[in-house]
């Protein structure tokens, strides 16, 4: 086994090239509009299964880009995803990144109502009065609450649903995929996902606009 000597500035470029090459060898061709996002997720996870399981509603990437350009904020369900999203790039378009999971009022209300903090966080986010892209990498209850809010007339700009786990994860993602409210989505079917994946998807959109 030979160690490759690659300049630090070339590591990411080389990695993305390897991913594209291996996808070609697997006989997988990704649509032009979603390719950068899927490749960014594979780069984050080293898991090529995402090439088959990531689902995009029609025009989801373009609608997400338009939302960012129009000043949309991003709300996520973990501080890890919050840390990973390029806040500086989003700020260039007037947006901010929020996570309310550690909010004391959210925690108190969730305990009183016997629901998750993620569930209450989505309610709090929906009241911000700004266009929002939701990036959910952990809690399926966040996706369940978003579906309830959509049924009540609320319309997110985009839902990124990549919750990870075993309890209600698959079912919650399907609620978003099968929503009949014309809300754009990027969802990874199945149990896989996570905060890193949610951040990677957000950054794939931001990098399209500014890098």
TrEMBL record:
Cited InterPro entries: Cbl_synth_CobH/CbiC, CobH/CbiC_sf
GO biological process, one term: cobalamin biosynthetic process
Key word Protease present: no
GO-annotated molecular function: precorrin-8X methylmutase activity
Keywords: Cobalamin biosynthesis, Isomerase
Pathway(s) this gene product operates in, as recorded in its UniProt entry: Cofactor biosynthesis; adenosylcobalamin biosynthesis
Pfam families: CbiC (PF02570)
Keyword Isomerase: yes
Span of domain Cobalamin biosynthesis precorrin-8X methylmutase CobH/CbiC: 10-207
Family to which the UniProt record says this protein belongs: Belongs to the CobH/CbiC family.
PANTHER family per record: COBALT-PRECORRIN-8 METHYLMUTASE
Name of the featured protein: Precorrin-8X methylmutase
